[in-house]
Design a protein that fits this description.
With 585 residues, the chain is an alpha+beta fold. Helix content is 51%, strand content 19%.
Length: 585
């Protein structure tokens, strides 16, 4: 078990090992640096002597005349004792040596290491025993062109001591080591308490419950406190995730769709109850299990899709997906498969029989459209055939037939336009351009468009909408809302009636409008169906007034597209009122 002292001792041990290693590196570097400095100092001193000697030789023209014994006078001027100066020509012949009386008989020095080195470098040095005198010297030689000047000192205890590195810095390192050790001991004692509490925390988290503990106010204590906060947050997040998972499972079980998740090995990891039910309905076998999913022929396309895309890497954020439909016993089912980035995949089963019925409803609507188009087309054709038969010669009757034909074409045009608007709302609703729309301006335009019809029926249109009422929407669709409602009131409210448009309420997101008239109203049995397409309360009257039966359907769909709501009711005292909302800009 980890203890406070063990942590402190380990830290001291590792620190000491690292410090000793660093200290050895520093000692080695400092020793080398000190020795190089001492050697460099000695070399500089001997270099100066060789240069002085060379200047003496040149000033006194000693080399051309060969009078090298004059150098003895120079030796008396130099302060150094035990200093030996030699002059050696480039062939290695010794021309002068201050320590050897018969230097003419000395052997050739061309192979001496200091001479060889000075021939290729700025100077040459060597520590060796002289073969002539038998003494050990520190040699320094420099090439001056026609000859070498070699200065040497006897390598005695004084020179050896001088060249040794100064080791006093070791005492400083030792003192520093002791101080740091004391500081580390104090710090580790404090950290030991934090480590002990971290140990207790590590043991306590095995239970997977929120943990409460206080840490000392030091760096490790701060770390421990942060870890504790992170742990408690993770526990909280884990509990929340478990709750969310439970909600998701309940949500999936509450769906009308069957959902199942599969591992990359095609093993089912989760499915809701509807998945089993729909799988049994599709297979026709009520005893089949989820493990037999890929054995059912209707799901072979899913298996082929998974096998084909399992090794592919999804491009961007688009996940591989496939969708197809199957039918069984008069019912229709949609099967969808999505492969995720980790190669697991999801299969969704949906009963789309209702959608198929909606398709039939659309087919019925298409038949209604064909029927509605058939009547004006037949009328136009009849009027034109009558005129072409030459049976009508009276200009007034000809004009009458042409006006009737024109009226039917107008009705046909209105019907086609209304159908086009509805299709655009349903199929491309999200592509409509949204802008700032002033409602009072829109209503005025509608009033001007119907001015002649309003005056003909002696009606009034009262606008109680402020200029500040601005909505965010598509201008043409909002225009169609007020235009169709106004046209509806003109056609069915009756003469000498009043249309009243006002904002009766507003909240943070919507303006709430009231569009009403004080006409004859709508029979209660029909009021729930007025927004249906081609639904007419009085078919003959509607056609006579030129209505297509699509106006209120357009109004409802346009309001819903703007995320508003609409309802209709009969007013107390007579008349009809439409209540709807549009979003604020």
């Amino acid at each position: 078990m980890l203890s406070k002292n063990r942590f402190r001792n380990n830290l001291l041990f590792f620190y000491s090992a690292i410090f000793i290693l660093v200290a050895l590196l520093i000692i080695t570097y400092q020793y080398s640096r000190e020795k190089e400095y001492k050697i460099s100092a000695l070399n500089n001193e001997l270099l100066n002597i060789t240069r002085i000697t060379d200047n003496f030789i040149r000033i006194n023209a000693i080399y051309p005349e060969g009078s090298f014994r004059l150098i003895d006078s120079l030796m008396r001027l130099l302060p150094e004792k035990n200093l030996r100066i030699s002059i050696i020509d480039t062939s290695g012949t010794v021309m002068f040596d201050s320590f050897v009386a018969g230097y003419e008989n000395m052997e050739n020095h061309r192979t001496r290491p200091e001479i060889v080195t000075s021939g290729v470098s700025d100077f040459g040095t060597a520590v060796r025993k002289s073969e002539t005198t038998g003494q050990e010297y520190y040699y320094f030689a420099k090439n001056f062109g026609s000859y070498y000047v070699r200065a040497a000192v006897v390598y005695d205890i004084n020179v050896a001591t001088f060249l040794k590195a100064n080791m006093r810095f070791l005492l400083l390192l030792l003192f520093f080591f002791i101080i740091v050790g004391i500081v580390l001991l104090i710090v580790t004692n404090k950290f030991g308490e934090s480590v002990t509490r971290l140990r207790d925390f590590a043991i306590g988290i095995r239970h997977g419950k929120p943990f409460e503990i206080s840490f000392p106010r030091n760096e490790l204590g701060v770390i421990g406190s942060e870890i504790l906060d992170i742990y408690n947050n993770l526990i909280s997040a884990k509990n929340e995730l478990a709750n969310e998972k439970e909600k998701l499972v309940k949500h999936l079980n509450a769906l009308n769709e069957g959902v199942a998740f599969f591992s990359p090995e095609k093993k089912i990891s989760f499915n809701n109850d509807h998945f089993i039910q729909l799988m049994n309905m599709i297979s026709g076998d009520l005893k089949i299990f989820t493990s037999n999913f890929f054995e059912i022929p209707e799901f072979s396309e899913v298996e082929d899709f998974v096998d084909k895309n399992m090794e592919k890497t999804p491009a961007g954020s688009d996940l591989p997906a496939t969708e197809y439909q199957v039918s069984k016993d008069g019912r229709f089912f949609r099967i969808k498969c999505v492969i995720f980035n980790d190669k697991s995949f999801e299969v969704i089963l949906s009963d789309v029989t209702k959608i198929g019925k909606n398709k039939m409803i659309k087919q019925e609507m298409t038949s209604n459209i064909a029927h509605e188009l058939k009547t004006p087309v037949a009328s136009v054709k009849g009027y034109i055939e009558t005129l072409l038969s030459n049976s009508v010669t009276d200009p007034h009757k000809q004009k009458y037939f042409l006006e009737k034909a024109l009226g039917q074409t107008d009705r046909l045009t209105g019907l086609i336009n209304d159908i086009s608007v509805l299709n655009k709302i349903e199929e491309a609703g999200t592509t409509f351009l949204l802008e700032k729309v002033r409602i009072r301006k829109i209503i005025r335009e509608v009033r001007d468009n119907f001015r002649s019809a309003i005056e003909a029926k002696k009606m009034k249109l009262v606008i109680n909408v402020d200029d500040k009422v601005v909505v965010k929407g598509n201008k043409s669709l909002i225009m169609s809302i007020f235009q169709n409602l106004t046209e509806n009131s003109i056609n069915y409210a009756g003469e000498n009636t009043t249309i009243n448009i006002l904002v009766y309420n507003e909240d943070k997101k919507f303006f709430h409008f009231s569009f009403s008239d004080n006409g004859i109203g709508i029979p209660q049995e029909h009021i729930g169906r007025v927004f249906e397409r081609f639904y007419r309360i009085d078919t003959g009257r509607s056609r006579k007034s030129g209505g297509t039966g699509l106006g209120l359907a357009i109004v409802k769909n346009a309001v819903i597209l703007h995320r508003g709501e609409i309802m209709v009711r009969n007013k107390t005292g007579g008349g009809t009122e439409f209540l709807f909302s549009l979003p604020k800009h």
